[in-house]
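REQUEST FORM: STRUCTURE PREDICTION
Request ID: SP-0412
Submitted by: Lab K.M.
Chain count: 1
Length (residues): 397
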Amino acid sequence: MHMITDKITIEAVLDRGVLNTILPSRDFLISELSSGKQLRIYIGFDPTGIALHLGHAQNLMFLEDLRKLGHEVIILFGDFTARIGDPDKSSARQQLTKDQVLEYAKGWINQVRPLLNFDDSENPPVIQYNSTWLEKLSFEDVINLASHFTVQQMIERDMFQKRIQSGSPVYLHEFMYPLMQGYDSVVMDVDIELCATDQLFNALAGRTLQKKINNKEKHIIALRLVANPVTGELMSKSRGSGVLLDLSANDMYGALMAQPDEMTEIFFTSCTRISLDQKDIIMNMGPRDAKMYIAKHIVEIFHGKDGGEKAEQSFIETFRKGGVPDEMPDIYLVSNKSLGEILVDQKHIPSKSEWKRLIDGGAVSIHEGEKIVDVSYTPVQPCIIKIGKRLFFKISL
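STATUS: Completed
RESULT:
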C-alpha cells in the first residue's frame, strides 16, 4: 500500500479547519502519520435514527482524507451500544430494540457510500458492527472492564454532573456505555479514534483501556460539531435538525439554501473539498451566490453532477420566480388536531413555540393567499401552505 508521508500534505489535511482537540498532541500525531506505518483509524456512529446529517458527513470526509494518505479506516456502527443509549444531558436515552437499530444501520450504509471510496481495490474502507464482540462478553468480562475505572471518574462527565445538580436520575446502565465504546478500541486494536467533541469522554475511556489491556498508545482526534457560529445551534441526529443525507437532490439543495448565511463558510470548510485557496473568492461572490455555489457542490457529492445541476435549476425556477416546487411533503389532516400540531407531530416544525413564532412573524400563508394568523388554524379544503420563502406543504383532507 502506497503511504503518503509528506508532512506538508499531512498538515494540509489537519488544517482543513474541523479539528478541535488532538491527544496526546498534534506534533506526535504528525510524526506518526509521517512515519510510513499504516495506522488503523476508526469512527463510530450509533444508529439511533433514520438519517445522518452534514455534521456526520464532515467527519466521514475527514476520515476519507486520512484513508487517501494510505491508512486503514473503519466505520463502526454501534448496533450494540445504540441499544444502551449514550447518556444525554437531561435524561437517559430511550433504549432501542435490535431490529430498530439494524434497520437504521441499513439505511446509513447507503448514506455514507458517496463519502468514501468503497471501490478502492487496495485499501477500501471497512464497515464493522460492535455487536460482533460486545454480545459475546460474559458478566465476568464486564466486571473486569469496569475494574479499570472509578465511580469518581464516571461522574466527572459533565452531563452526569448537570443531572445530579438538577436532581435528575443517573442510571447505573449509563455507566456501561463508556466501557462498551472503550472496549471497541481494544478489540479493533486501533491507533486513532475520530470523534465529535461531545464524544471525547467515551473516546478517553477507549484510550485508557487500549493502554491498560493492549499496552498501546491511542490518538484521539476530536472534530468540531457543525454549529451556527452566531446562535451556537448544532446539527443533531437526536433532534432531527440539520441537512439530512437521505434527502433528494432538490430537497437537499433547498435545505442548504434555507440555512442562515453565517453557515455558508462552515459548510465550505467542513463539507466540501474545494481548495481552501478558493475560499475568499467564493465568499466574496455575495451571500446568495456563494451559498448557491456551495449548495450545488455538496448536492453533487451525494447525487452526482447531473443531480446538482438539476437541483440548482429547479431552485432558480421555483423560488426566484415565485413558483411552487414539483415535490413537497404531503400532509393529511387528522381530526381534532390543528395544522400546527400535525406539523410538530411529524417533525416538520420543531415545537409548538416555533410554530407560534412563525405565525406571529407572518411567515405562514396559503400560497398566493392570505397570511395565517391563528395558531389553531386548520384548512377546510385542499391547499398549499407556504412557510417562509422555501418551505411548502401540500395539504390533503
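NOTES: The domain at 330-396 is CATH 3.10.290.10 (Structural Genomics Hypothetical 15.5 Kd Protein In mrcA-pckA Intergenic Region; Chain A).
Reviewed by: T.R.
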